[in-house]
Design a protein that fits this description.
Length: about 60
């Protein structure tokens, strides 16, 4: 099975709550003309944790 076929097979099984991350990743990859900055790839996923009140409370005294 080709990589294209594997992607086409997997996409329908992606849960709705993960589609934004997948879409952001694909759009990011397609917009890049040079090497990928891997540190940016995890940003949408990590942002969900970074933006929580508990996270703010944990860092407020540092």
């Amino acid at each position: 099975m080709s990589k294209q076929q594997r992607l086409e097979h997997l996409i329908p099984s992606i849960p709705d709550n993960k589609l934004d991350i997948v879409l952001a990743f694909v759009e990011f990859i397609l917009s890049q003309e040079t090497e990928i900055d891997n540190s940016l790839l995890s940003e949408p996923s990590l942002a969900k944790d970074w933006l929580r009140k508990e996270e703010d409370a944990a860092w407020e005294n540092l």
